[in-house]
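Incident log entry.

Two folding requests arrived from the same account within the same minute. Monitoring flagged them as a possible duplicate submission, but the sequences differ. Recording both here for audit purposes.

Request one:
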Amino acid sequence: MTETLFDSPQTPRPILPEPQRERWQPLRIGLVELFHYDSEEFWFRDGHLLLRGNNGTGKSKVLSLSLPFLFDAQLRPSRIEPDGDNGKKMAWNLLMDGYKRRIGYTWIEFGRRQADGTARYLTLGAGLSAVTGKTQVDSWFFLIEDASGKQDSRIGQDLWLTSEQRIVLTRERLRELLEERGQGTVFENARNYRRAVDERRVEDLPLGPALEVRLVERPRIHRPHGGILWRPQTTVSPGMSSRAKSPSRPSSGRLT
């Protein structure tokens, strides 16, 4: 089920997913003002994420704007775009041939259980800004973790990437929010960010069978008399289920 990211502290929201293992496991992916998404979350279940929807609804975009980008911080189209087309620039994912200026965020949250049972969280994220007439986007990166190692902040619970007026935070405002409160660090360049990610041994995260993302297309069934009938795919594999959110967006299903 796709969970919408409520960006106002006054807005009630579901209880966030909790880690169950001692090893880091992915919990959530979030996109804010990127592509056709205003503010959206996709929740993992036991390291698995199922994205389903019609062709062109943005399933591949959810992944291309988060993984592996949030690990290597490389903005090259050959790394970001699902088809590897070098002619497609990151700026398009922000401006969409309609915006003059736009700031967006992408992030992924991991969690693990310590030996004493307490939960730790680590969020990797990137901020992107594009302006009409400029081919290059401005980028910055961040880690969210408690400096004292006691209680890590979580997006949508302890901090938000938009203001109460739903205005996306600037880089300066994000730095003020994280660093002045000891909740994380903002990086000006990809090199320092990658080094920080490596130091936290995030490369040991379960990116194999334990982190599985499935993209499921809705098959098109041609009627004998012409036309196309969309048939929902309700069962992907034993024990897996999902719920459609809308015909214009992919939905995420959590394994049961």
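Request two (distinct sequence, not a duplicate):
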Amino acid sequence: MGRRGKTSHEIPLAPLERILRQEGGYRVSEEAAEKLRDIVENLAREIAKVSADMSRHAGRRTIKAEDVEVALKVVLSRAAGSLAA
């Protein structure tokens, strides 16, 4: 879906377009920004799931920064493992 209408995305395209331009993209297609948004949202959701599991395992209802830090390492190592397979 383009820029019009309701979407189920949490992250707007404009900040991602800005990041792509700031990192050297003189022109950025809407498709490129949408792809980055999908990747970032999926990664964030996976990190959030693992973080929540870690806090529950520790007997807490609050997700702490260290849960997110460890979850990031877990998710990235899983991703690296699946790319190697």
